[in-house]
Amino acid sequence: MAAQKLTKARFVQIIIMMLVLIAAFSYRTMTHDVTNTVDCSVNEQCELKVGEENITFLYHSSTKVLNVTKSELLTFKVLNMDDVLMKSVKQSTLEGVEAPVTITVTSSSGESRQVVIR
Fold it and tell me: Where are the transmembrane segments (predicted)?
């Protein structure tokens, strides 16, 4: 391709296109929301995927019981409690848990998500 002389019109077109691209990337960067928090409802089953593993929560508000079904590769910690369910536990029940319940789930690869049951 032969070199062409840069005209004023072509220069303005290049500047306008650069401004449009910069504005689009800036807008997307500002509005991008990376949340690792999942909101769940009381008395409804809540399923969550952390990495490649699945975990299911069910909190009964009348009995204050939290039922958890998870893969062996996941651990989770209930905030405001000292309980940490380790990798070997697949199903567990925690009693006396007050709502709202905040739980941190961590996979074996280190990826973590937070679940809030309200």
Answer: 12-30
Structure tokens at 88: 């070997």
What is the residue extent of each domain of the chain? 37-117
Q: How far is CA 51 from the centre of its chain?
A: 10
53-60, strands of its sheet edge to edge: 46-50, 53-60, 65-70, 91-95
Q: Does the model's pTM come out above 0.70?
A: no
pLDDT in tens, 33-52: 666 788 898 999 999 888 78
The continuous run of DSSP H or E covering 35 comes out as none
37-117 maps to CATH 2.60.40: yes
| Strand positions, DSSP E, the chain | 37-40, 46-50, 53-60, 65-70, 75-78, 84-85, 91-95, 101-106, 112-117
